[in-house]
Amino acid sequence: MNSFTIKDLENLSGIKAHTLRIWEQRYNFLKPNRTFTNIRYYSNDELKKILNIALLNKYGYKISHIDKMSEAEIKEKLFSLNQLEAQQERIVNDLIKNMVDLDMESFEVTLDKFIMVRGVERAITQIIFPFLEKIGILWLTNHINPAQEHLVSNIIRQKLIVGIESVTSSVKVNKSVVLFLPEGEYHELGLLFIYYMLKSRGVQVIYLGSSIPMKDVAYVVNLKKPDLLFSHLTTVGTNFNFDRFLSNMSKTFPDTPTVISGLLTNTYEKKIHPPIHFKRSFTEMMQFIASL
Is 31 left (phi over 0), alpha (psi -120 to 50) or beta? Predict the structure, then answer.
């Protein structure tokens, strides 16, 4: 990945495309190239720069002042931010920068340092999942190199699995949940995160994994009689039909509540009916898990 659209910058930085265009006109820090059809695109360096600038701007620095800062001054100001939320956002941005640079050593060191100080659960909830939410849009739009995706995914997957294996709960919830991804969906990290959160709250989890045929899900459901089915959709293959998937789920499991979360739920605009329910945001998903 070495070029980004203005929409990518908007999703990753939180700065609206309209504002980015105004900044381009007024200041010197953004100088996009253009395609032969006159569409803006941005380099890795410009992405990293806008992540830094957006964070400083969010926490009180005026754009006109940031524009006059050197790179060293910007870096110094970033590390001087003492609000906890700002520090977490800086770490998430550092992970994005490590990813685009393919600096996997720094990526893992950054995660390990946070885990050492704050613990696995906070690393998962405050760093890993916000990172996945930000870059998930790149997976959805194919604006990420497969090598970058695989390297990042493998590191995070290792951290999530260690967290799942080590987590214990002081409470026991008398409910069981089957977690699975439908055929064609291989992005497992969101589902592993849900596994961790459910297990940490004492819910019994039956984890099937990625790209599971419907007949295999049905076999497990008929055998185990779970209280809930849960799937997390980031991006799926070209043969995936969301309408057909929802229809098959409703017909195959008419009496089993099914929760679907993930980026793809935000692209689906038709009305959904029980037993299927969407959790379209991180907050909705966490509130639902807490309610079990």
Answer: beta
Cα separation, 135 vs 138, whole angstroms? 5
Q: Which domains does the chain have, with CATH numbers?
A: 1-81 (1.10.1660.10), 85-166 (1.10.1240.10), 169-291 (3.40.50.280)
3-class SS of residue 206: strand
- The model's pTM is 0.79
Q: Could you read off the pLDDT tens digit of each residue along the chain, which spans 292 residues? A: 568 888 889 988 999 999 999 998 888 888 888 878 878 888 888 999 999 999 999 999 999 999 999 989 999 999 999 888 999 999 999 999 999 889 999 999 999 999 999 988 889 889 988 888 788 767 656 667 778 888 998 999 999 999 999 888 888 889 999 999 999 898 898 899 999 999 999 999 999 999 999 999 999 999 999 999 999 998 777 788 999 999 999 999 999 999 999 888 988 999 999 999 999 988 899 899 999 9
